[in-house]
Amino acid sequence: MEAISEHSIKIQMEKHNFVTIADLSKEKIEYLLQMAQEFEKHPNRELLKGKVVATLFFEPSTRTQLSFQTAANRLGARVIGFSDAKTSSTTKGETLKDTILMVSNYADIIAMRHHIEGAAQYASEVAPVPIVNAGDGAHMHPSQCLLDLYSIYKTHFHSNRRFFVLLSFGNEISTFPRLCVLIPLFSSYPSTDLE
What we know:
By secondary structure, the protein is α/β, with parallel strands linked by helices.
């Protein structure tokens, strides 16, 4: 696999929202999977040095919040935000739009988790900075979809671009929305088999 230079990563990281996995082309997803391998080998880079990442968690999620904060720190960014909406001005009646616009004055990118489906899409429409959806209710969690896809890619992706996926829900029905999003991605590969 061709090594990915930090210069090419900076070029690819222009202003883009990441609200749903459907925002990404097949080629972009493949690029991100390759980039993930590079970051796994060398996680600490200064690609976001001098940037501020706001993590706005209107809904609690320890793993997701810590993952975003750790990633931002390893990329050299400073992190601001909140982990409980009760500590924000939304408790005083501030609207989501007002919160997003206000935080945009302080941050270069906003990673947001919200309990209302579609909140991240709305935030991306009003924000002057990129919005990353860290989960919006039972609707979308695109970074988790990419992580799931990367796990499959690492363990089952072969040079002939053919892999098999076994869908098993077990007791974790909460994964169903993520899997529903992944199925169309798999079908974009002509030789993909879903079992």
